[in-house]
Structure formats: C-alpha cells, structure tokens
Specification:
The complex is a heterodimer of chains A (320) and B (274). Chain A is an alpha/beta fold and 320 residues long. Chain A contains eight helices and 18 strands. In chain A, β14, α5 and β15 form a beta-alpha-beta unit. In chain A, α3 crosses α4 and α5 runs parallel beside α8. The N and C termini of chain A lie far apart (55 Å). The model of chain A has no long low-confidence stretch (mean pLDDT 96). Chain B is 25% helix and 34% strand. Chain B has seven helices and 18 strands. In chain B, strands 1, 8, 9, 10, 11, 12, 13, 14, 15 and 16 form a ten-stranded mixed β-sheet that branches. Chain B has a two-stranded antiparallel sheet with strand order 2-5. In chain B, strands 3-4 form a two-stranded antiparallel ribbon. Classes of the chains: A alpha/beta (320), B alpha/beta (274).
Chain lengths: 320, 274
Amino acid sequence: MANILVVAEVVLGRVKKATLSAITFARQTGSPFSVLVLGTGARDAAAEVEAFGAQKVLVCDDASLADQVCERFAPTIAEVARKGFDVVVVTASSFGKDVAPRVAAKLGAGYAADIAGVASEGGTLVYKRPVFAGNAFAFCEITTATQVVSVRQSELPAAEPSGGASPREEVPLAAADPAAGRVEYIGLEAQKSERPDLGEARVIVSGGRALKEQFAQVLDPLANLLGAALGASRAACDAGYAPAELQVGQTGRVVAPQLYFAIGISGASQHLAGMKGSQTIVAVNKDAEAPIFQVADYGLVADLFVAVPQLVTELQKSQA
Amino acid sequence: MKILVSLKRVADPDNANKVKVTSGKIETTGLEWKPNPFDEYALETALRLTENGANTKARLGEVVVVTFGPKETETTLRAALATGADRAIRVDAADDTLDGDLVARALAALVAKEKPDLVLVGKQAVDGDANQVGQLLAEYLGWPQATFAGSIQSEGDKSLVVGREVDGGTLKLRVTLPAVVSVDLRIVAPKSVRSVHTPATHNYADGVRFAALMAIMAAKKKPLAEVKLADLAPDTALRIKYLRAELPPSRKAGIKVKSVEDLVQKLKTEAKVL
C-alpha cells in the first residue's frame, strides 16, 4: 500500500477544480492520501479540500509563493514528499507539468504525465496515459520507489466530498532552488474575462478559422447565453482570431465538458486530442465531409454565420 | 551565444491516427520518421537567436544539435545541419533503451562538457507526449527553466525575457543565462524571437525554414560526432516501463440534424444537456 501526496493547485487563493480529479486518482489507488496546499492564501484555500477523506491537509502559506515560479515551489513539494510519501500527484495543468518533473528529479523518482487512470496490479500501481496525441493509451509502471505523476482533469471525474474534516498541519517552506535567484517574475498577461475557465466549464463554445475576424461577434452571444467558456482551434489562434490561451487540443487545453460546440472547426487530429472526451459534441460546419462529424453526436451541415445566430434565437425562445 | 538543441525523431505526427496496437504493443509500421515538430521549433529558435535575420548565412553564434538513437538517426542531425546548425552529436543508443529521465541525465553530462549558454528543447515529443526532458534537465543542472515558450527576447545574450504559454494566458519571466527553455508552437511566428543581432523591425517567415539544396550538400561536411550513452550516464536503468497499450474506444457514430430547431430539441430531450 502506497502513501499518496496530492498537491493542490492554488490560484488567487482558490483551489483549482482540477485538484479534485487528482483526489479521485488518489482514491482509485485504494491507498491513504494527504493533500498539500501551498501558495499564497493556502491557509484559507485549504478549507476547500478538508472534507475529502485525506489523512491530513498539509498547509504551506507564504508570500513568496504568490507567483507560479517552479523553482520556488519544487523544493517544498519535494521536502514534504520525503516525509513518507510514495506517490506525488499533481494536476496536468501548465503549472503541474512545469513543476512535476523538477520535483521528480529532486526525489530520484520516475515521472509519468497526463494520467488517465490507475489500477493496482499485484501490488504495483499501473498507470494509463494517452500517447500519440490520444490515438493510443499506454499502460506503464514506474520502477523507482518514489513516483511522480500528473493527472488529467478531463479523464478523471472531480471527487465528491466524503464529509468530516481532515486534520490540518502546517509545513515549513523549504528554501527556494538557488536557480530561483536567476528567475524574475514579470507578470501574467491574460484577457480579462468573466467566463468560466476552460477546465471548469460545463459548456464550451469553440470556434475555428472559418469565423475569421467575427470570432467574438458570432460566438459571444451563444457563450453568454449558455454561461459557456470560449475555446478555439489552433488554426483560429494562429491566425490571430482568438487569443492563444483559448486553444483546445494536443497543444493547448484538454477538456471534457458536458457539452462542446465545435463551430467552423474541421476536426484535425490535433484538435480532437483535446476534446473528444466531451460528453456531448455538437458540430456546425458547412463541409459535410469534415472529420469533426465523425466524433460529433449532433452534426449540422450549415453556414455558421446563419446557423449560430439562429441557434441563439432558438435557445432564447426555449429559455423564455 | 552558444546553444544546445536536442532533437528526436518521431513517427509521422500527421498520421498519428494510423498508429496500430497489435498484441498490446504500439506499432508505427508504415509511418515515416519525421523530426518532432516542437524540436524543429527549438532549432528554428536557436538559429534566429544566433544570426542577423537579413543575412542568415553569417552565423553569429554556435548551434549544436544532439540526438539519441542508432546510426540511422543521423538523418535527423544532417537535416538540422542543412538548415543551419553548426555541429551535431549523436548519442549512440537503441530506441528502447531510453526514457526521458535517462536522456535528461545524459544531456546534463553533455552540457557540462559543451558549456552552452542556453539549452533549447521542444516542450514535448509528440509520440510519448510526456513533456519532461527540459524540466528534468534544468533540475539536474541547477539551472532556471522557462517552459512552453511562445516568445523569447534576448537581452544582450545575458538574460532572456520569455513569454510562457500557460493555462491562464501568457506568463512573462526574465531568466538569467545559462538556462533551459522549452518551446511551444507559436515561437516560430514572424516576430516571436528577438535576438541581439536582428533588427526589431525584421519579420521572419511564419514557421520553420527549409534547407536549400546547396546547404544539404554542404551539411555532409559539417562535423558530426558520436558519443556512447554509457560515457554520459553510467546508470542506464529506466524509470518507466511500458507494459501494454490499447486503442481508445471510438465514439459511437452521431447523427446529422436537419435544422437548428431539430438540434435544440435533441439537446433538450435526448442528450438532456440544456
């Protein structure tokens, strides 16, 4: 039986929902687990993960962890892991993927990324992970005693609280890597948006290159109506019609909402890798042969500039 | 500036949907070897940082490319030399004797010998999709890392301002060299890389450059050294062991709806997602 350490991702004093998928992973191993909440505001954020049946909620709240500089986070994660943990679990977000290998190298641990499932086979944990842009799943084991994994939010459901309150323990901040002295955080440039995060949205409205300069003009009303996050294909981002952080695909975000609209997206394998786990997929495209229709539950062959406004009107009618 | 770039060959990513699984093993038979696209972007970035964009033949720095694999992977290195890299190193190893951690440890030993100012890597190889070598290498070297770079601006070749493509937007860091940078795809946009040599007004063609026929001939004369893996990493034990593979379940075929009204109706009553 392994002892699992789940590293919660804290952004602006809140625990990212992806952390709950990492907790699901920990539960699926059948082993006891603790959750490490580290970051600025971790003390308050820790309350969000105290009812999930963790042995302990470990808290490291420090002003030096306000910005996501992995040379500052990795030493504390490694230091905590050394206190009797066998498997360190992070979210497969840009933060988790940045820091996890660094932690693994410190611990002399093997690292497996983007885990989509786990099972114990004869006492050994076997990890399932997508390879070749999700065109195959590989099953692997890590041969070192200590192991580090990142877990895909789109593949493991968010854990539900199990009640109670895990005991809390403060853990000290470890000294930053000497290399941190050679990293200066300048800032995060993000589009101001009231929309939900792509990883947390129930509905995503994604657009492709076909939208041209009318990307926002056409998709905003639909997204607003549904409280959806906006997504985009690589082609739409490359052409500058949508900001890069909206990109869904092998490069970009991997998502699995309840409802995914692919508007004017042809469905390159690169894009499918990021959304084919969605529960219900709707595609609107004027090319009836577009590959997106092979994964769509509901396909509408139509001119999107006509169909999307119609869809908005129709939804407004049905909500009235 | 001296830059080390690591390159990996992968089964043709444009045909990754033709990957087969036979008796639990992934087979890429019939797929051509191609350079990993993100590694090509790393090479393009390295070339842009060590030249004047107007005259790319005049090299204003050194780019050393390295790959791990059997003799035939020298094709990947020769192609890199033809597009402008100055020197190549092949670390001799059979493909199935490698994992990301071993590659990172061997690269760390190579960096100790070569002493580059910067190591550039692709953010991930599109076969294993692990996204780890750059970060592991940075830790083994005790260097700062800037992953998923979508833009790089050199400040006197002493530090780099890197725009990292993260989930919430673009995160800007200034890293003092030497450092490890892993690149994302938008690094090859026309204005993504600004070296100390290239005027700020210069626009590159979008994407990676191609080798001219003359350069392909000339590349045959550029130095290509062979190094034994065991000389770089005495411990060649793998940390990850692949047991089996399977194809993902295919989505059941959907239907085409006739109209927007029909679509809304089905989303409400059939899929029950509205």
